[in-house]
User: Which sequence fits this backbone?
């Protein structure tokens, strides 16, 4: 399954697709919510790696509006709990991810996205 | 520092010191190792606190038990002198502590009568407490270590002719060895013919210093052998593979998720992705605490990368162009792949790891080597600036073996995403032109490691 934590780390990598290639857009997704262990230290450590706007937009795209549009300066427990839920508990099982730039479609099947590139897409 | 007697399992002896070093580093304490590496199961190691011994015994796969070191000698006279010199350690138990005392030997069985004699010879300790076999407050062990005489049936060991004898107080029985059974591949809901055995995958997990909150990546995920033990120790794991079938299997849900669910670790498998490590979609670097992997080296499954071995035929090109033009997506498209030579792969893996690891992060992977041809420079030749080998342990299969290599990202700066060599040229050999012995390992394996000029 794709969770927003990994989705936030992936950009389209087709040949020549270097700008506006992130975040990949979800389409026709099937979502399951599954509980994950809450680890505030991990989340605090991971925060600097997050592209905030991409995370919020992607979460909204799949129907979760719990995160504020701007990353709050105060990192408190309530905030970490919503962040935890969005990053780790939403599982995209089926559907696809499309590059906003080159429109390459990465299909997700059985929870595993196929991100192999075709011959004409490798540099 | 005080001495502790470590009793190791008699397997994978080259792996045990790197393992305890990794776990000591994980918990942030130091070790004082003996100058000479021992081949037997008994090693005296210095620690600052008894608790450190307990932490190691709970986590190290090759550690059977840890004792407080009370004495050692090549004769009993030497042992007793050494024990008397450590009186302050055993004195506190003299008055009122229930105890059990056992005498045992490695590579030998001591006759009962001599066992009794050995115990009686410790009477100068003058213990007054009750002897209690079931739940004693204190357990003391005396270990004779004999030379290995396997295959030497005629020269049977002479009783009492030991190499060294050790004595100490039990601090903790190792509990991590039980995980070998827990992660037994045969009992796993999903595995393949290249799955790593449980003991080795646990040792690999310990080399990564996996702990709650660490983020770990396997770029040759396969059936996920290393993901389960690393996740068991608390890490969050991401896997990718060029061949999704390995991760998926034939049933639903995908095999790796089924096995993780069996172990109660599904929530720690963050995600699985099908892509070629050298054509990866990672948005940024400095992400992972460790990268752990067992790259396919071609004996049972060869490594692959995207591309073609040879130029496609005109007809093939035409079909491909037609497909592109039609925009058909009803059939899943399977791009062509070509073999990925092992020494290229190893170098690329180190380069990619330098980009993806956080500073101080570790790359842990197996590299097969040809025993007669291996040189340490083979490992050095795959390194790049900012990446240093911190452990290199051989599992010996005779004419070949595999080395568990642990490389640390010592660089504190970030690196740009690596550009991989996609042609099969040899410019990467550099000015020295060293060809590592693991180059073309697959071919060498199937030729039975014959020397070219023989």
Assistant:
């Amino acid at each position: 399954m794709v969770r927003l934590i990994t989705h936030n780390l992936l950009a389209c990598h087709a040949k020549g697709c270097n700008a506006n290639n992130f975040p990949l857009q979800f389409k026709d997704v099937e979502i399951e919510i599954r509980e994950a262990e809450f680890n505030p230290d991990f989340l605090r450590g991971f925060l600097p790696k997050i592209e905030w706007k991409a995370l919020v937009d992607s979460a909204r795209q799949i129907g979760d509006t719990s995160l504020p549009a701007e990353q709050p300066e105060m990192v408190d427990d309530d905030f970490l709990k919503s962040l935890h839920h969005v990053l780790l508990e939403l599982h995209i099982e089926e559907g696809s991810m499309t590059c906003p730039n080159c429109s390459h479609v990465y299909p997700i099947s059985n929870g595993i996205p196929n991100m192999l590139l075709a011959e004409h897409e490798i540099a | 520092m005080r001495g502790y007697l470590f009793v190791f399992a008699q397997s994978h002896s080259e792996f045990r010191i790197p393992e305890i070093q990794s776990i000591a580093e994980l918990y942030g304490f130091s070790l004082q190792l003996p100058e000479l590496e021992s081949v037997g199961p008994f090693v005296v190691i210095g620690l600052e606190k008894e608790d450190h011994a307990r932490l190691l015994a709970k986590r190290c796969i090759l550690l059977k038990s840890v004792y407080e070191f009370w004495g050692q000698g090549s004769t009993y006279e030497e042992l007793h002198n050494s024990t008397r010199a450590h009186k302050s350690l055993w004195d506190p138990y003299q008055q009122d502590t229930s105890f059990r005392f056992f005498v045992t030997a490695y590579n030998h069985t001591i006759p009962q009568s001599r066992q009794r004699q050995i115990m009686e010879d410790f009477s100068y300790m003058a213990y007054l407490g009750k002897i209690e076999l079931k739940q004693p407050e204190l357990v003391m062990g005396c270990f004779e270590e004999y030379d290995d005489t396997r295959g030497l049936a005629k020269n049977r060991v002479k009783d009492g002719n030991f190499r060294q004898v050790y004595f100490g107080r039990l601090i903790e029985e190792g509990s991590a060895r039980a995980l070998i059974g827990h992660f037994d591949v045969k009992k796993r809901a999903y595995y393949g013919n290249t799955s790593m055995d449980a003991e080795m995958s646990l040792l690999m997990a310990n080399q990564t210093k996996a702990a709650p909150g660490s983020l770990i990546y396997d770029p040759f995920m396969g059936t996920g052998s290393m993901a389960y033990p690393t996740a068991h120790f608390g890490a969050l794991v991401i896997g990718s593979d060029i061949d999704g079938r390995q991760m998926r299997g034939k049933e639903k849900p995908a095999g790796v998720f089924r096995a993780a669910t069996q172990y109660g670790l599904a929530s720690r498998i963050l995600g699985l992705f099908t892509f070629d490590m050298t054509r990866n979609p990672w948005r940024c670097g400095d992400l992972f605490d460790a990268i752990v992997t067992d790259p396919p080296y071609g004996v049972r499954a060869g490594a692959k990368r995207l591309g073609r071995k040879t130029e496609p035929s005109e007809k093939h090109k035409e079909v491909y162009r037609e497909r592109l033009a039609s925009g058909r997506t009803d059939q899943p498209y399977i791009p062509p792949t070509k073999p990925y030579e092992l020494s290229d792969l190893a170098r690329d893996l180190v380069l990619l790891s330098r980009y993806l690891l956080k500073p101080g992060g570790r790359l842990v992977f197996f590299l097969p080597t040809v025993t007669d041809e291996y040189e340490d420079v083979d490992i050095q030749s795959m390194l790049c600036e900012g990446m240093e080998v911190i452990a290199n342990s051989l599992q010996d299969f005779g004419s070949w073996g595999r080395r568990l290599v642990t490389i640390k990202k010592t660089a504190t700066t970030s690196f740009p995403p690596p550009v991989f060599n996609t042609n099969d040229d040899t410019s990467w050999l550099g000015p020295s032109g060293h060809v590592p012995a693991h180059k073309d390992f697959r071919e060498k394996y199937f030729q039975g490691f014959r020397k070219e000029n023989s």
Observations:
- Chain B touches chain A through 43 residues (CB under 8 Å).
